[in-house]
Amino acid sequence: MDRIGKYEVSRLLGEGATSEVYLGFDPFTQREVAIKRLHPETLRGSERSALYRHLLLNEAALAGKLQHPHIIQIHDAVIDDKDGYVVMEYVPGGTLEPFTRAGQLLPFERLIEIIFKCTRALDYAYLQGVTHRDIKPANILLTTPEGQDIKISDFGAALFTASETTQVAGFGSPAYMSPEQVREMPVDHRTDIYSLGVVMYQLLTGRLPFDATSNVNMAYQIAHHEAPPAVSIRPEITPELNAIVGRAMRRDLSERYGTWMEFSHDLAQAYRNRSLTADRGEPPDSEKFERLRAFRFFREFSDIEIWEIVRFAEWKLIQPGTVVMKEGEPGNYFCFVIEGELRIVKKGHLLNVLSVGDCFGEMALFAAGRGARTASVEATTETRILTIRAPALLRASALCQMHFYKGFLEVLSSRLSLANNRIASI
């Protein structure tokens, strides 16, 4: 096979019961793509062919709707009586499936990062009115085999809460279904929370929470039993991780995480409590995201824009006495205080003290030719700062830039108000 529609086909990437996935090339956009194509026999007139066509249509309906760095992008789709395929972003790192085996379990810190990013992506989808309904290791792709950046794929079974589209009942992968899903009850985002909990359990222990010989028996256990604690299978699992995965998989909805935010917050907290970055090096992406999300400056930034910043900003740990900016020098970057304290000095006089969440150095960006610094900034304690350089900001999305400039105006307004109050009190 040389072509599928306008796409050149390189090789077969994988094959399932109903479809094949090929590596292709789009000559128009000059990029590699993945093409999921239904087997010809699944398109022949039958009740099952209608189901498969419906699932493919469901996935195609997301083209352009879910724009998130951790959700796979749908580029194109063709679905008719003779052919059915969806063209999507190609992600080369493989799935999480290999890491669900006892001999290939991930380090805890990498596992937390992966699950954290899944929670944020699925929260974004939920806020767009989409519940995935088929979360499993095979549908979570790694951007690189050794990395921890992920893309969630296969929204064929998704529930569109904002639409009137008829949904397929009881569809999903039995081992990862929630109790309400196996009972064919109405579901919401909490069914995805349960399923992601099962994925986390499997990544932690190397086994599924329930061992069944048939789908019927699996459904019964999910509906009526609680899984054994993860720590009972693998004793080195920390109490925090054991509690998180246990809560995500509660049968009773009132005991399960009610929001994705709660789930992701506990994951980030578990990372911090474990001191997995004890060497005080660069923090993990989950901690970066949580820190920025909590700052007042970033309150109007979307999650997508926060992830942008996580990717292009520089994070540094500096020692007391370090001069971060020097009076008179040109400046093409600005910073935020993440931890610690700095002081602003002009001609030997203390002007201000900066603490967590404060922004500094941004005014030089607005001067012609990247103007000179008007004061020096030096650390008074061990301090972690986030640095954003002008070229990186210029490459950011238009919305991200707009929110930065709006934030700068608010910072300037606050400083002018503080200066006026000081003058009035003299």
Describe the structure.
The chain is of the alpha+beta class and 426 residues long. 35% of the residues lie in helices and 21% in strands. It has twelve helices and 18 strands. The strands form five sheets. Strands 1-2-3-4-6-5 form a six-stranded antiparallel β-sheet, with helices on one face. A four-stranded antiparallel β-sheet has the order 11-18-13-16. Strands 12-17-14-15 form a four-stranded antiparallel β-sheet, with no helix packed on it. A hairpin with a 7-residue loop joins strand 8 and strand 9. It is globular and about 85 Å long.
List the defining traits of the structure above:
single chain, 426 residues, alpha+beta, Phosphorylase Kinase, domain 1, Transferase(Phosphotransferase), domain 1, Jelly Rolls, 3 domains, 21% strand
Short description:
The chain has helices at residues 47-60, 108-127, 179-182, 189-205, 215-224, 230-233, 239-248, 260-274, 285-294, 303-312, 390-395, 398-424; strands at 3-4, 7-15, 19-26, 31-38, 74-79, 84-89, 130-131, 140-142, 150-152, 159-160, 314-318, 323-325, 333-339, 342-346, 349-354, 359-360, 376-379, 383-389. With 426 residues, the protein is an alpha+beta fold.
